[in-house]
Amino acid sequence: MMFDPLYMTILLVTLALSGSVSWMVKSRFNAGQKVGISSGLTGADVAKAILMDAGITDVKVLQHHGFLSDHYNPLNKTLNLSPEVYNGRNASAAGVAAHEVGHAIQHAQGYFPLWLRSFIVPAANLGSNLGPWLVILGIVLMSAGRALGYSLAVAGVVLFGIATLFTLVTVPVEFDASSRAKKVLARLDIVAQGREYNTVSGVLFAAGLTYVAAAIGSIMQLLYWAYRAGLIGGRRD
Questions:
Q1: Beta carbons of 96 and 64 less than 8 angstroms apart
Q2: How far apart are CA 191 and CA 92, in angstroms?
Q3: pLDDT at residue 166 above 70?
Q4: Distances (CA, A) of 76 to 57, 61, 73, 79
Q5: What distance in Å separates the CA atoms of residue 119 and residue 55, rounded to the nearest whole number?
Q6: Degrees (nearest 5) of the Cα angle 183, 188, 192?
């Protein structure tokens, strides 16, 4: 089932797309590390300055291990920056730090797409792991003439659809955080117009494409499972 030509094609396209985007992100991040910023602030300093400007006082800025592992945790309100970003005094560090603060600002302002993404996380995790197996089990039961099979296959597609919805909602959340980051970096004169600002924009745009690639891959897999379940092109029992 999972090794038929159509599925393997989708898998290879997804891997190629995500691999290309990942290479682009690392390449632009590394290049951005060579571009110093006029303010001379570290990524941690940038994060703290933007949080102060936004009037957010309950978010802690912490150093987190792992290359490009930067993230905002809304559960304990911590901004976790990788060593390269936390200590970096360059365009890449400033851009990534400001982007993560963008998520903290979204959280503080009740940005709806962020709330929706957080709300569907449990169902999305369940759907990405269990959905395909329900479809496979349903197909097996349908081939054996069991009426329950079609219902299971449909349930699997719906569950995986929630996981796909998560990837789709993530795209505007990430690009909005980057937009907020670029605006505040320029307004606070943390990065100068020209090379510094353009480098930040390039790094953040490449990072945003990783979520676009994930969404495309998830949509392709959703269509595949819908096809296998008989929701596209008619039932095959």
A1: no
A2: 11
A3: yes
A4: 13, 11, 6, 9
A5: 25
A6: 80
- Least Cα distance to 83 among 74, 102, 70 occurs for 70
Handedness of CA 89, 108, 209, 132 (dihedral sign): positive
Domain containing residue 190: 5-38+110-229
Residue 204 lies inside a defined structural domain of this protein: yes
177 touches 210 (CB < 8 A): no
pTM of the predicted model as reported, rounded to 2 decimal places: 0.90
Report the distance separating Cα 69 and Cα 81, nearest Å: 7
* Residue bearing tokens 């400007």: 53
Instruction: Count the domains in the chain.
Output: 1
| pLDDT of amino acid 144 | 81
Please give the Cα distance from 222 to 160 (Å, whole number): 7
Residue 53 forms part of a structural domain? no
In the residue annotation, 84 being an active-site residue is answered as no
Half-sphere CA count of 97, side-chain side, radius 13 A: 33
Instruction: Measure the CA–CA gap between 33 and 49, rounded to whole angstroms.
Output: 20
Question: What is the rounded average pLDDT for all residues in the chain?
Answer: 94
Q: What letter represents residue 53's amino acid?
A: D
Among the options 84, 100, 174, 196, which is catalytic? 100
